[in-house]
Amino acid sequence: MEKPRRPSFPTQAGPSSKAVRILSTEASVIPGETEEDGMLRREYVLVDDTTAVEFNRAVDELSRKPLLERRIPPTPTTEDYEPPSFPPPPNPYNNNPVIPPPPPLSSSPSSIASRAATNALNRALSIASKKLFGAAHRRSSSSLATGDRESAPSSPRRHIIALDNDPDSGERDPLEDELLEALEILAQKTFVLTNWADEMYEYVKAVPQKPLPDPTKFSKREGEADKNARRRKHADMEAEYNAVTCVAVYMLLMSFAQKGIDELARHQEHMMMRYPDGNFSVSEGFDDALSWFKVQFQKCYDRATLVKTWLPASYDGPKSWLDQLVYDRALVLSRTAARKELLNQATTPDECEKLYEESLWCLYALQDDLLQTGNPFMDEDRTTIDTWIKRTKLRLHRCKARMAMSDKDRLNDVRADNNLADVARIPPPWDAKPSDAVGPSTS
Q: Alpha-carbon distance 313 to 117, whole Å?
């Protein structure tokens, strides 16, 4: 007996959709506003309708640069090693030299006003502001079926979207199966970046002061020691960095969730064209994907709104390109895993494996068109991202192979691994001897 498939969701949002609050600036019209002013206003997407955080202020002062590695201190010795915190706060007092960096993406031009107006954050927020099943710009083909598949993930993870593999579930729709597979990849990217945003969210919530003190207006207290003043200023900078980055990443995640819903809506419209009488159904995986992305959108909206309360209403502090932030996050995760391997400080047998996997998914997220469309350095950036994907995949492969080795062989192998060259080596690689069991045969 054929198992009926669940009915699909309506093309137009029904009463149940009111539970999800959606941002929208597209349809608003202000009397007397010129077309140019209206277009400029629509470049801004606010967290709420009143005192929202505007991340686009003074964008003409920004210079878009290709992805570059930030200064990261060399690996400490075993004696002074401390597990890195997430996210790593900016350190203005760090003058340590950089251990060999990854390939530079390209040279950076001077300020490009037109590029600034369409930076990664603008693109993310613009898409996040679309209504569910609203009038979004339609592309001729699905982005999930093209660019996102250029680097298919290599590491298996627990599925987020339930794929219907029941042979008795009735006739399968190959187009829907293809869509759900692509949405699973998008969901994995969203999940990993959400973990990062949630870490910053918990950090910001632990700060009792609202709003956060502005580091640019920092002043030394009477009788305060210089060392204590520097420590307090650094704490203010760290708190501000986490709050601003947290809001930006949550809003990027809203655009990821919106992208998933747009793809589901596009498939729905396609089915309506094929079956004008509406006599069709979708799988449970389809409904599961819709529910997951809607919940994700709502969660990110709520948390971005809450974190915003820690920032002054007139906040106009430093801003960063979202793709650079995600790139830095990916490298930090990969290097953290490499340090733990080199120093034999993994707290669980699979900790390094999980860190490498998370780093990979951050790199996959960087390839998404939400972070690359309109980027004048797209080719250079993609080359660098591809380099680090290959490098991290190799690290993950070797990490899994080492899990079956003895402690001695594993440490010898990791110390001789030239793929970890961007991390300080203890001992140096020329002093380490790889195990005969893992080295190439010389006979």
A: 22
Residue range 350-362: average pLDDT? Answer: 95
Tens digit of each residue's pLDDT (9 = 90 or more) over 14-48: 333 333 343 333 344 444 555 655 554 444 344 44
Same domain, residue pair 296 and 335: no
Closest CA to 233 of 409, 92, 38, 388: 92
How distant is the alpha carbon of residue 208 from its chain centre? Answer: 27
Q: Yes or no: say if 326 and 362 are a contact pair by the CB < 8 Å rule.
A: yes
Contact by Cβ (8 Å): 183, 260: yes
Give mean pLDDT, residues 233-251: 88
Helix or strand or coil: residue 239? Answer: helix
Please determine, for residue 141, whether its predicted confidence score (pLDDT) is greater than 90. no
Domain boundary pick from 318, 342, 357? 318
Specify the CATH number for the domain of residue 249.
Answer: 1.20.1050
**410 lies in which domain range?**
62-108+321-443
Binning pLDDT at 50, 70 and 90, where does residue 12 land? very low
List the end-to-end C-alpha distance of the chain, in Å, as a whole number.
63
Residue 228, C-beta contacts closer than 8 angstroms, at least 6 positions apart: none
426 and 403, same structural domain? yes
Same domain as 408, residue 277 = no
Q: Which residues contact 221 (CB under 8 A, 6 or more apart)?
A: 229
371-410 residue pLDDT tens: 877 778 888 888 899 999 999 999 999 999 999 999 899 9
Is the same domain home to 294 and 205?
yes
Cα(146)–Cα(106) distance, rounded to whole angstroms?
25
- Helix (H) / strand (E) containing 332: helix 322-343
* Helices marked H in 80-207: 113-116, 120-128, 174-205
Read off the DSSP letter of residue 259: H
152 shares its domain with 196: yes
The total number of structural domains in the chain stands at 2
